[in-house]
Each structure stands twice: as C-alpha cells, then as structure tokens.
Amino acid sequence: MEYHSVLPNVCISCSVCLCMLVQTAECCGYPISIFFIVVNEFCERFSYYGMRAVLVLYFRYFLLWDDDLATSIYHAFVALCYLTPILGAIIADSWLGKFKTIIYLSIVYAIGQVTMAISTIHDITDANRDGTPDNFTFHIALSMLGLILIALGTGGIKPCVAAFGGDQFQEHQSRQLNTFFSVFYLCINAGSLLSTLITPVLRVVFIAGSGMYVKTDPEGNIMWSVCKCIGFAIKNRFRHRSSSYPKREHWMDWANEKYDKLLIAQIKMVLKVLFLYIPLPMFWTLFDQKGSRWTLQATTMSGDFVSILISTVNPILILTLVPIMDRLIFPLIQKCGLNFSPLKRMTVGMLFAAMAFVSAALVQIEIDKTLPNFPSSSESQLKVVNTYSTTLNVTISPNEHLLIESFGSSADYVTFDHQDITVSLNTNPVITKAFSLIKGGRQTLIIPSDPTVMRDFVLRHGEQWCEFSRKFGFGASYTFLIPSTVFSDDCESITEVEDMKPNSVHMALQIPQYFLITTGEVMFSVTGLQFSYSQAPKNMKSVLQAGWLCTNAVGNIIVLIVAELGKLPKQWAEYLLFASLLVAVSIIFSIMAYFYTYIDPAEIEAQVRKEQGLEPEEMEKETLEMEEKDEDQKNEQGVKQTKI
C-alpha cells in the first residue's frame, strides 16, 4: 500500500510517511513532542520538590535529629541527586538511549517515593499506639532506602530530559530552541504548585507522546571514551616530558597518536566549559539552603497564611520572573547597547544570591533577639509550677528564692551550673526534697496541691466531660494545670503556664531573601542550562549536562562539611560567611568569563572533518543526508499546504 503526497513525483510507504508527519508536526513553531516533555518535567519536579520541601522537617520532628544532622543528611541526599546524572548520562549514551533511560529510571523513582511515604507511617512500629514509633531504626533504614532510590531516579533522568528536549528541534527552529530552556525551567517550578493527586495521572503523558519523539540511538559509551582519551593524553604527555620533545598546542594533542582528531576536538570543547564550571558550586551551596537552614529559620518565626506563602514563594517568583527577564529585561538591556552575555548574567545571579544571604543574616539577628536563653552543655534550667492552694515561698539551694502564686509559675527558667539541687517549701511543716537535673536541658518542677501526696487526674469522655480550647503561638511551649474540679466548672479552672513565649518575628521578613535568591536563580540557572547546551558537541550534550549538575552536588557537599565541622556559634555569622565566599567566587568567575571565547561546536566539528578529509563514501553519505533533509523540508511544506 502506498501514500502519495501532494508533491509530484514523491512516493513513499504509508508507515514511513506517517512517522515523518508525526515527528515534524509543529505548534507555534515548536515540535509537538516538546509539549509532552515539558508536561512530564512539570509533574516530575513537583514530585521531587514537594517531598524535598518537608524533608528537613521530617528529619527534625519525626526522626528527632538535631538541626546540624538534619541539615547534613538533607544536603547529602541533594548531593547524591546531582551526582547520579553521571550514571544517567552513561546509560543514555551507551546503552538505552535518552527515551528508555527516562522511562526506566522513572519507575525506580516512583518506587523510591512510595518507600519514603511508607517510612513516615509511625503506626507500623507503634505497637502501644502512643503516637511515637517504637523502632526508629526501621523508619530510618526505610527512609534512607527511599531517598537512595529517589536520587537514582531523579538524578539519572536529569541529564537526559533537557538534552532529549533539545534533540526535538530542527536547524530552522534555533530561536525556539533558545526559548525552550526558559520554558523548561518554568515547568520545573510550575510543577511544585501542582496537586499530588494529579501528578501520578499526568506522568503518563510522557509515554503517550512516544510516537512523536525524535529518538537518537545510543552512540556508545561516550563518557568512557572521553575518560580513556584524557587518560592517554596525560600518560603520553608524562612519557614525553623531556625538553627534547617539541611542545604541542594543547595538552590533549598528546592523544593524537591513538585517538581521532574529531574526538580530541570535542573533548577540548567540553574541557573548556568544565574549567569554567569550577567556581559554580558555591552558588548551589547557598541556593539549596532554602530547603534546610531557611526552613529551620522559618520554624522560629510566626505566621499563619504567610507560612503557606513562603513554601510556594520560590516557584511563584520563578513563574513571574522568567518571562519578565526573557521578554522584557534582557531585550531592554540589549537595546541599550550593553553586552549582557550569558556568563555576565550568571555572575550577576551569584551576586543576587549573596545579597539574599545578607538579608537572611539580618532576619536571623532579629530572631536571635527574641529567642529564649537556652542552657549550655554544662548548665541546667528549671521552672517551678505551683498548684498549691496558697502562695509558696520556694528556696532552691544554694541561694535561689522564688515567690510563686497559687496556680502560677516562676517568671522564667532558673539557670544552674550544677546538677544536684535541694528544693524547700515554706509549708507547715517545711518540706525539703533533693533533685538531680539534666545537663544541657530544661525541666519543670510541678508542686502538687498537697505536696505530700501525688495525685493523677484522668479526663474521661463518660458522663462527665468538658471542652477546652487554646490557640497556640508558633514556637511556644505551655504547661496546663488541671484541678480535680475541672468538670464542675466546665474546664474554666484549667490554668496555663507559658514555658516558652511564641515566636514574634514574622515570616514575611523572609520574602526579600526569597526574592533575591530567585532572581539569582533565574539569571544563573536558566542561563547556565542554555549555555551548557549551546557549547556542547552534539554527541556530548548529556555529558556536559551531567557536569553542570555535578556542580550542584559539590555545592551541597560544601554545606555538609560546614554544617558538621564549622559549628559557628551564631547562625547569622554562617550566613554572612557564605555570602562573603560567594562574592569572592563571583569575582573569580567574572575574570574567567572575561577570557572565555564563545564557540560554535558544529562549526568546529565541520572544520576538523574538512582538515581530515572525507572519504568518497563519506562524502556521498553526507550529500545523501543533505538531500534527505531538503526532501523532509519539502514534504513538511506540502503537509502545511494540505492543512491550509
């Protein structure tokens, strides 16, 4: 069976024609397959960021880890997510191809998310149903397994999705290709606003577009080939280190004896960009603390609706700033005659991130003014609560005197530099009792209504019951005193003692730092994605994308080291340290960018091929490919005419 196109003298099989029509179909100048890719990325990113947004809180309040350990494990996970792209690039380029790699590792990803969700169900090990897991080891092991699977899944597909999207564009769609990376980044952040119930349904959209994709076959283990070529060049250069051997233009030229000149030229292009990546991890060191240090900072602040706004402010700002920058700010700068190149944008993005941490430091200084004075590791603190019917004069050895009203408490926690204390009450007769306090902790001593007898009161939902409500402030801690007459006065006799005052610094103060870091992200990350793709040889785009993502991994490792080893006494000082380091790094990067020369990888590859000289068979093959390309464009025009 044959299909005859509207163009004369063109006859091709029906199946081939349908495939060609599907793969060249466009909408608004973009390949239709692109829309399936960005929708998939939209959903995948929500799955990742939705989990990551509460991860440090899960560590802190479910697994009961301290701030530094929660921060360290959080950044270790993020670092792993940005190291596994190397594995994904190898699998895609040498074995499965980008499409199958995305599909298979997405399955691993989904299993990891399910495992992580199961680890949060405390009832699995809560045999006595007291609300606390009985076996934390089980939950920790399950959550770590889930995080490893998620890291393999999300990291493995990272270098493939952006490069796979770029593969869908033809040469005549260069303008759309440049816009694609902004749209792609928009979808990454828009995904974090999507409901978790809708996400699993929409993830199948990527598979639904299978027939429309341009799927390039794996081109061999390019990563391994690159490593072997670099290794041979270094080894060969070391062998010929004597001054009797003539110098070569580039150290990679020492691989000429064994490897193809085209491969060497491609590696030179990749190394040139990778050298430029060296200062970049410091940006990610600051940026990814949004999900750790900044989240923990928010837990010491007040706010109801604003707490929801803060959790979504980054993606909302991304959705707003990306089109504004892409369509208004950058074109306006260009019209003013300023050369605002991609590398200059990235430098400005770094400076915005540094300013964000200065803003975070100023907020932290305000928070520190309101925080209670906690005991040091060698001190103990005690608050005394009086449920006795009269005011009590309490003496705590050696010379601490407290006057506490009935159903009242000491004004604040009393700090002791020793553990063993003796408490005396001026009752008749005088009651004295010894206690041992916990070092580095806070405790509350409750004096019952009859100091000689301890009574337990149980509230039951039987014939007698009453309802008591109290709105708690963020960060506050209370002790409620319930007398035996609680049912007779409809809970009116319940007395509260405020152990810790609620947070008073509002979360709205975090908005400026989020605005600054997001502006930096738009200028740095979106531009970096586009720059990496444009400067990479065609067969090494996944490799360079993996290299770009590895800068994020190194940045998170830096946070991990500082969190575990730095131990700065004040959090605001740590913020200023990171801001200062990024300013210094941005200066270094701007100098490196000044000497960088932008390249056209396709032009360099063509020049190398020309210098090598093509065999007649290769010339014929190249000519045939050009003819087929021209024929495809003619067929595409014919299809458009038919639609009209």
SSE map:
Elements: E1 2-4, E2 11-13, H1 14-24, E3 26-27, E4 30-31, H2 33-53, H3 55-62, H4 67-83, H5 85-119, H6 136-167, H7 174-190, H8 199-202, H9 205-208, H10 222-239, H11 261-277, H12 281-287, H13 293-298, H14 305-335, H15 342-370, E5 380-386, E6 392-396, E7 400-404, E8 408-409, E9 414-416, E10 420-425, E11 431-436, E12 442-447, E13 477-481, E14 495-500, H16 511-534, H17 541-566, H18 571-594, H19 601-612, H20 616-643
Parallel strand pairs: 5-12
Antiparallel strand pairs: 1-2, 3-4, 5-8, 5-9, 6-7, 6-10, 10-11, 13-14
How is this structure best summarized?
By secondary structure, this protein is of the alpha+beta class. It has helices at residues 14-24, 33-53, 55-62, 67-83, 85-119, 136-167, 174-190, 199-202, 205-208, 222-239, 261-277, 281-287, 293-298, 305-335, 342-370, 511-534, 541-566, 571-594, 601-612, 616-643, and strands spanning 2-4, 11-13, 26-27, 30-31, 380-386, 392-396, 400-404, 408-409, 414-416, 420-425, 431-436, 442-447, 477-481, 495-500. The strands form 5 sheets. Strands 5, 8, 9 and 12 form a 4-stranded mixed sheet that branches.
